[in-house]
Write a structure and sequence with these properties.
CATH architecture: 3-Layer(aba) Sandwich
Radius of gyration: 17 Å
Structural class: alpha+beta
Number of strands: 5
Order of helices and strands: EHHEEEHEHH
Number of helices: 5
Distance between the termini: 55 Å
CATH topology: Aminopeptidase
Helix content: 25-40%
Strand order of the largest sheet: 1-2-3-4-5
Strand content: 15-25%
Shape: globular
Largest sheet: 5 strands, mixed
Length: 164
Amino acid sequence: MTPDSNLNLRLAQPEDCDILFELIKGLAEYEKLTDAVTGSASQLQEHLFGSIKYAEVILAEIGGKVVGFALFFHNYSTFLTQPGIYLEDLFILEEYRQQGIGKALLTKVASIAVQRNCGRLEWSVLNWNEPAKAFYRHMGADILEDWQICRVSGEQLKEFGVRS
């Protein structure tokens, strides 16, 4: 399906952080991870637009209403010796799915990766999320079965960081 002709993709601005944080909570609800959301819109604003910019966001709007987003940041491939882009989140409100908005957002992030001479674009998908996996495969992505995510966070990270 092609995106709605009223679809507008744009970079997020500081005044978008409240609605963006609401979308993040919507994503957490969809992924059954609402307890994992511990941040705030003000923290998000600081991290996106403060003195150090940790990530970037593209918003999808239809008729002036924000209906989805893609949040991404740079990483680096030592094997390619090139920067890459990691897509942290891609989310579309349920009533706006199946309209090509996800494809438009993913294509936009990929075009940014190409413009910035990145060697790859990568992201993670929950193993139970078959609709997302089918969509990503349809878009041409490989799902790497041999790789798994390792994570240290919260108190464990604090302890991990002081080990000798």
